[in-house]
Amino acid sequence: MKFLDSSAAADYNDPMSDSEKKRRRVEFDDALKGYHQDHDAVHPDENVDYKSLTAESVGSLILGFLSALTFISMLFVIFPIMGIVLGVTAIRKILRATEVHEGLGMASAGVALSVVLATAGAVYHSYKAQYAVPFGYVEIKWSDLLADHRTGRIPDPIRELTKPQQDENGNLYFIPVFIEGYMDPTRHQTEIRSFVLVPEIERGPFGTITPNPTQMIVVTLSGDLRVSYRSTPVRVGGILTVNPEAASGSTPYSLRADVFR
Fold this sequence. Notes:
The protein contains seven helices and twelve strands. The protein is of the alpha/beta class. The chain folds into two domains: 80 residues, no CATH class; 123 residues, CATH 2.40.50.870. It has a five-stranded mixed β-barrel with strand order 6-7-10-12-11. A hairpin with a 5-residue loop joins β4 and β5. The longest helix has 28 residues.
């Protein structure tokens, strides 16, 4: 019977090849040194595609919010204009390389905010210019002008309002008023320089009903201002004067208008 020595028996019973043994020894040594890594593990940095957020998208969104300043002044319209330009630029840039850039929603929101707020600001200022009382003018109502039905006396607040005022330097001035009403129909439809303003147009079976004399104002436009007849309400501003000695049946009020809307 033939016997193998111990080293030969170990090599005979070990199925691993020399290369496998060498690899394991290297891994063992690396593990002792703290170098061993699980090569089968997936690291967070592997197989991940990163996209960059475009600066134009961020800028467009910021300018979109700043477009709200157009409610203060239309001088700030530069913000929505820049917001739209940057937003459109960002959208085109992203769509050309969607695998590299992101921020499409942000850019779209910036453009939408710029358009909406700029439009709303323009509408607000248009409304304000049409309906708001001009700076320095005092708004009056037709009820303020109505004389006492027993004595025919002009209301004291109107009498005081139409009196000349004196500033700190002793100069006299008049306080302009602002009132809304209807143009009483006239023969002329265009190039009107003077007309009668009334609170409403009342029509009877025989034509227009003449209102109370203190519910009429004779309006004369100042300078070269000329207007066309309107059946809708108009707003007139200027210097109101009162003639308490006006003839019976005629209006005591006249207004030199420099504002017509």
